[in-house]
Design goal:
This protein is of the alpha/beta class. It folds into 2 domains: 52 residues, no CATH class; 105 residues, 2-Layer Sandwich (Zincin-like), CATH 3.30.2010. The chain is built from 5 helices and 7 strands. It has a 4-stranded mixed β-sheet with strand order 4-6-5-7, with helices on one face. A 3-stranded mixed β-sheet has the order 1-3-2, covered by helices on one side. Strand 2 and strand 3 form a beta hairpin. Helix 2 packs across helix 3 and helix 3 packs across helix 5. It is elongated and about 55 Å long. The C terminus is likely disordered.
């Protein structure tokens, strides 16, 4: 996906919050008028990254993908599955007793087989909440699991992020 033009809009009414959205093929970043210029560059960069991830994630239907994977790998289906912009230290998470799965929007641009592994990992947690032998057997059904895990480790190391976990 090519980088879209960015408009930075300073607002006197906006005191603390920042916002970014895509409109008419442009990313608009709304910031407080009083924001120091030194902070503006970092905030704009972060908000553009979020808006881009959100746009990319809108092209993947997680519900359909999770339902297909659950059936193929004989795993429980999620009651809900959604992208999360708030997951900065994990690739995915779930709440087993509610059947809720969240996938970090940072994964919106990874290859499908990597995203599939994270979804399978979280679906397996719906059956087994820990990472014990039964859980490993369920996740091990995915033939590209080891490769996908290696991809995520390399991605974390290459971006100098702290290695995020995939936990429930």
């Amino acid at each position: 996906m090519t980088q879209m033009p960015v408009d930075v809009v300073r607002s006197k009414r906006r005191k603390k919050t920042v916002q970014a959205y895509v409109a008419e093929g442009r990313i608009r970043v709304l910031i407080p008028a009083g924001l120091p210029r030194a902070e503006e560059e970092k905030i704009v960069k972060d908000m553009v990254a979020r808006a881009t991830r959100r746009l990319r994630s809108s092209t993947v239907d997680l519900r359909v993908r999770a339902r297909t994977l659950a059936a193929r790998y004989r795993l429980p289906a999620a009651a809900t599955i959604e992208w999360s912009d708030r997951q900065l230290s994990r690739w995915g998470s779930c709440t087993p007793n509610e059947g809720k799965v969240r996938i970090s929007s940072r994964l919106a641009h990874v290859p499908e087989w990597v995203l599939d592994w994270v979804i399978i990992h979280e679906l397996a947690h719906l059956a087994v909440p820990d990472h014990g032998p039964r859980f490993q057997e369920l996740v091990g059904r995915y033939e590209l699991g080891e490769r996908a895990e290696g991809y995520l480790i390399a991605k974390s190391e290459n971006s100098k992020e702290e290695l995020p976990g995939i936990t429930s």
